[in-house]
Design a protein that fits this description.
- This protein has 216 residues and is an alpha/beta fold.
- The protein folds into 2 domains: 3-90 and 199-208, Rossmann fold (3-Layer(aba) Sandwich), CATH 3.40.50; 93-196, Rossmann fold.
- The chain has helices at 13-21, 36-42, 46-61, 73-79, 92-101, 113-127, 143-147, 151-164, 179-189, 196-208, and strands at 3-9, 27-33, 67-70, 88-90, 106-110, 134-138, 170-173, 193-194.
- The strands form 2 sheets. Strands 2-1-3-4 form a 4-stranded parallel sheet, with helices on both faces. It has a 4-stranded parallel sheet with strand order 6-5-7-8.
Length: 216
């Protein structure tokens, strides 16, 4: 039977990433987008944001889906240990697994400064005292571009920043919106850049026993 997966995003640009990544699988994706949560966090309305994301998850869980995928680390951090009666797939956990398996010194890139604290806190919990040599860099003045619909300008800014970085550290991008730019740099330089989408597909396919679409 075809699995039904609901996806909760902070921005519309994440929809294409997920649709493309799972295009080989026999499943039905529905998408819910709430950029307002990011605005609430910027305005330090954390308690209101927590109530909202938990309400969304409860509401989505009652819509007849088999699992919920959350593609924003801020949403995941707000959710804390809230549970529903279906699996909640957190996009950052396979990403954290990849970071923890990497023995090299690492640079993690962000465009949204409001995401850094929550992501690093969750990474620290996930690593469970395993020492990680990590440097964080924020690509300044870029996140507002994508939030205002200037996707092409955003992608170019992220691409240019990643391309000019020194290659003596292992690189990763922490946000789904940065994946296309990171993949472009990978294609041009053959340098591996860890991203949240890379390990999500196999992890989610295994957890939910997803089946690929049969060849005609």
């Amino acid at each position: 039977m075809k699995k039904k997966i609901a996806c909760l995003h902070a921005h519309y640009s994440n929809i294409d990433y997920i649709e493309t990544a799972f295009s080989e699988y026999d499943l039905e994706l529905s998408h819910y987008v709430d950029p307002g949560l990011i605005i609430r966090l910027k305005n330090e309305q954390v308690s209101e944001a927590k109530r909202q994301v938990k309400h969304q998850i409860d509401w989505i869980a009652q819509s007849g889906v088999d699992a919920i995928l959350i593609t924003c680390t801020n949403y995941i951090a707000l959710l804390n240990n809230h549970e529903v009666n279906i699996p909640i797939i957190k996009i950052d956990e396979p990403y954290f697994e990849a970071l923890c398996k990497n023995p090299e010194t690492q640079t993690i890139l962000f465009t949204n400064p409001d995401t850094v604290k929550g992501t690093l806190s969750r990474l620290e919990q996930y690593a469970n005292q395993k020492p990680l040599d990590i440097e964080v860099k924020i690509i300044e003045n870029t996140f507002d571009l994508i939030m205002s619909g200037k996707t092409e300008e955003y992608q170019n800014a992220v691409y240019q920043y990643i391309k000019q970085l020194s290659s003596n550290r292992s690189l990763s991008v922490a946000q789904l919106s940065m994946v296309a730019a990171a993949q472009q740099v990978e294609r041009e330089t053959s340098k591996t850049i860890i991203n949240p989408l890379k390990s999500l597909v196999s992890s989610m396919a295994n957890q939910l026993n997803l089946q690929k679409i049969a060849e005609p």
